[in-house]
Amino acid sequence: MAADVVRLRRALGRPGVWVAVCAVTIVALVMFPAAALWPLVAAAAPAAMFAAVVTAYEQAAAFRARYSEYGEGTEYGEGTEYGEGTEYGEGPARTGLPERADGGTPWTSEP
Amino acid sequence: MTQPDLPMTPPAPPTTPEPRLPRLTRALIGPPGRWLLPLSALTGLLLLYSVSAPGGYFGLALLGGILALTLAVVWIPRFVVGLARADGRPGLRRHWVRWAAVPLMAAVVAGLGSAGVPQDVRFALSRASMEQVAHAVSTGAEPEGGGRQIGLFSVSSVVRTGGGVSFGLRDTGFLDTHGFAWFPAGAPPQEPETSYEHLEGPWYEWRRTW
User: Fold this and answer.
1) Which of A78, A88, A100, A102 to probe by mutation at the B interface, max B CB count within 10 Å?
2) Are B35 and B66 in the same domain?
3) Which of A17, A53, A63 to mutate to test the interface with B (most CBs of B within 10 A)?
4) How would you classify the pairing of strands B203-208 and B177-182?
5) Fewest beta carbons within 10 Å, which of B99, B102, B187, B207?
6) Which contacts of B186-191 are long-range, i.e. CB under 8 A and separated by 24 or more positions?
7) Nearest CA in chain B to A103
8) Which domain holds residue A33?
């Protein structure tokens, strides 16, 4: 029982679970367009999406706290879908990587 | 005094890969990108097309509505949570163009759709072709049976009616039928089940109730 609770809490901490709930509610909205269901389902879909986004931010915050040596706001934080920040060479050099003896750009940074 | 030699070869890359957040998490906390923006544009075009004929295209409008609802459900929570959280606001500021693109597209689509611009543009581009057919039919040519393309419209029927020519449009409306009518001599005749709305010149839009 306690293990199930832990498993459930772990599952609810994953954004993917909430996104799946959101997707299922939208599909239900289309498949079963009964008037009585609409308000319930129409409220459930955005609520699940809100939960997914909040969970994702929490996950990102925990990640930042855990891997702070990799630098903040680079490739796992804000605006990463197109790889802005340092992932594709823009922005400041990544920290946590070996630096040249003269203090220049890390050897492994992309051009 | 000599300068210490700089290392000539780069050190070996770290053996463990750099940890990264799951792709879904990065997408949820990031700005709209490679899926949301093109899908929004596609939905906008679909909705504009669905209202580009009298009565609209019901199936396409329904599909566009469902897509628009889904986009709203995805965009609004991401924006609101990003705005509410201190660690989300820098991302909103940095990528404000991408965040603004979706509501801007929605506003443009709503504005153009409610002003009837898609239908006006499509009709204007098809008017010459339709007028040519209308002249031919009114001067005695037998209207071709079956569906055909006239201008940008898919026409299901062309019939001579009360001193004019009527064009029925395929797949428009839900239960009613819709189309255009050409009456060069003046107003169309009064018919019990058909209503006319004047467009411009000799052209009218008609609706036949089911």
Assistant:
1) A78
2) yes
3) A53
4) antiparallel
5) B187
6) B188/B162, B188/B164, B189/B162, B189/B163
7) B6
8) 2-66
Residue B126 and residue B86 share a domain: no
Q: What is the domain count for chain B?
A: 2
Residue A91, chain B, CB below 8 Å: the answer is no
Span B82-141, pLDDT tens digits: 999 998 899 999 999 999 999 999 999 999 999 999 999 999 999 999 999 999 988 887
Domain boundary among B80, B115, B150: B115
In a domain, B30, yes or no: yes
Q: Give yes or no for residue A14 having a pLDDT over 80.
A: yes
Is A32 within 8 Å of chain B by CB?
no
Chain A residues whose beta carbon lies within 8 Å of the beta carbon of residue B18: 70, 75, 94, 96
Asked if residue A95 lies in contact with residue A70, where contact means CB atoms within 8 angstroms, the answer is yes
ipTM above 0.85, yes or no: no
Best of B8, B81, B89 to disrupt the A interface (most A CBs within 10 Å) is B81
Q: Final residue of a domain: which of B98, B115, B132? A: B115
Residue B120 CA to residue B180 CA, distance in Å, equals 12
- Type of residue numbered A25: T
Touching check for A50 and chain B: CB below 8 Å? Answer: yes
Are the beta carbons of A63 and B21 separated by less than 8 Å? yes
Dist CA B73 CA B43 (whole Å): 14
B196 in a domain, yes or no?
Answer: yes
Contact A57, B92 (CB under 8 A): no
